[in-house]
Amino acid sequence: MKVIIFICAFFLANPLYAVEMDDDPLLALVKIDQLEKTDIGDDNDTAWEAQAWIGKDLNKLWLKTEGDIVDGDVEEAEFQLLYSRAIAPFWDAQIGWRHDVKPTPNRNWLAIGVQGLAPYFFETDVALFIGQKGNVGLRTQFEYEFLLTQKWILSPEIEANFFSKNDSDVAIGSGLSDVNVGLRLRYEIKREFAPYIGVEWTKSYGNTADYIAAEGEDSSELQWILGLRAWF
Amino acid sequence: MLHKLEGHFALKHGLNKKLSRRQFVVGASALMAYSALPWPTRSFAGYESQFTPTLTGKNFALDIDYQNVNFTGKQGIATTVNGSLPAPTLRWKQGERVKIKVNNHLAHDSSIHWHGMILPTQMDGVPGFSFAGIKPGESFDYEFEVKQSGTYWYHSHSGFQEQTGLYGAIVIDPAEPDPVAYDRDYVVLLSDWTDEEPTDVYAKLKKQSHYYNRQARTSADLWADIKEKGSAQTYQDRAMWNQMRMSDRDISDVTGTTYTFLMNGQTPEQLWTGLFNKGEKVRLRIINAAAMTFFDVRIPGVKMTVVAADGQNIEPVTVDDIRIGVAETYDVIVEPDADQAHVIFAQAIDRSGFASGVLTTDPNLNAELPDLDPTPILVMADMGMDHSVMGHEQKMTDVNMAMMDHTMHMQQEMTMGSGAAGFGSNKPVNHLQTEYGPHVDMRAEMPRYKVDDPGIGLRDHKIFYGRKVLNYADLHNLYPTVDARDPEREIELHLTGNMARYMWSINGVKFADAEPLMLKFGERVRFTLINDTMMNHPMHLHGMWSELETGDGDNIPRKHTVIVQPGTKISYLITADAIGRWAYHCHLIYHMPAMFREVRVG
Q: Which of B88, B217, B431, B547 is most buried (CB neighbours < 10 A)?
């Protein structure tokens, strides 16, 4: 809670300029990166990954969320509320609170990360999560875009999660926990609205794989996906 | 008279094919021959509306109000003067005193700035500097002496009202006989219209700066490059851009994907038409009143003799093609053949569209629309050669060439007299501490002073098409330099920004955080601008002339708006002879709020 107060205070303390020409208006963005049906036909699986921000050029309040709904039940749901500050031409530093609603019992983390565009146009999001029981997680995400045409865009992405400790209640194992590789082909009907098809491969490692196997699930999955990307 | 015009323009629109340079060498004219798409037959329903009203005399009443318009098939709301888009042409006489009552019927503050006019600061129409602006329902009485002659324009200086149609031409007839002979004259006012709210356009640029760019590099393009140049060469060519996270196809922030380009308020389908009689010399007063679009103007088959730049007479220079930056004006004399109709073709700098009109003796004649030129591609020199990201052989070659260029230029300057009026700055470039941070994405390490460079997309026109393109080195004042003093001091200003975040600034400091630039009354000062971005910036100083240093100290041309090309530097002299607070800014409307300074003379 202290963290949130700190974030809000920091955000609001930032000077607001009263000028005749407002070069830096308060803007808000909602961006659904992925809203998709996975494993079409098999079980009824819906996944989301979205972010939203409100703020100005250099300082923003940032919300990130991702999760998974299987047969109507929310299996995974994660929210991050972050203060984001531009630290370099292509990079924002972010600090805030991560809350995992599902799986239960829920988990809280202090999130510290950088998000931006690396040389050669790699969209990058790297974050360190410091948990309540001293568990430390690291998440790295990279995404690239190949413009096949101005509107057909092929976008590979890779995500990996690491943890310092086991947390068997929520099926987290220490070390490399899981890797997720996706390839999505979208068509930008307009910039803000693009349906896509794709394929996603997920694999769990180490203790994480063991916990998942114990629940009777596969530690490795290859799925077709159908989804929508949109922002406004 | 008007009924006679009811003819049929069967214009043909060329297929905009993707062509290699080799094919272009074979002949652009041959390609035009197989232009196939029929040009839409124009509707003559609203023909009278083609003519922008002209107001003359000494007393004027201008009413700013909303106006329904339809340029795209969709109803839009413009802000106009006297219900006209563009606003009425104001025709003044040099030496007279004009009174203009401006009534604001908008729900927001408004204002009118007389662009390029030398007048007292209170009459300049910049809210915050000249006056408080014109509140809704209120009016303001402008009154000033018309000291100069030539072609200028006027526009709102409030919010983004310029984008929504609040602009018009000013034509001032000289008190003395005009040194330029012509039989008739036409205003050719270019602009860009969008159905979107300007605030939405600005927000989109902040959220996704490449939103309007649909000319980015694609994989097909990559494959073509690899086939042509091999993978190693292709990698090298692209490495620097990829490292810098910038696109060499980033030409315009806002493009034809949202803009409809207008000539005298007419779309290319409506086709503005200017009539002339056989054998006449026609003076075209070309004004770029666009919010964001640079145009390359030509009349295929017709030579244009440029007689004035930014309203001021220059030594006539005959060209085929003119790049006109936002807010610039050029007057040209043309003598077109009578037996055919001639297209005035104004293509957007990124080739995402064009504005066009026709000059003809007979509206029944056919005119042929030319193809758009290929989309320009930025080269390393346009980035001012950032050493920090070099390291490839190819880059070194480019750098060496640029260095040679630079050295040669330096020598030239030395022999011409270091720092003398008219020859620009040879001071080493210095980047300030304020230029470093998340708000600035590049700094030109080796900006070149190249007034003879016509700019991206036009550099090879002479070789490929035999078209002479106007460049700043062609500009020589028709009259001797009034203030022949060398500058007492030099002010170096860096045009800076972060393209991806869509933040703009001068010396890395945006207007909201900046101190005014202080000039001493009567001093002669040199402004040296260094463009640390990859966009062209048309810099406009109010109240005083920007005397552009094109390498001719005796006849320095006077401008009100100067294009600073990406990765270059350019200098001009200012005689601080106008006391008061003046605006100084990039005239691209979405750069202007931040890339702005107050210049205070006292």
A: B547
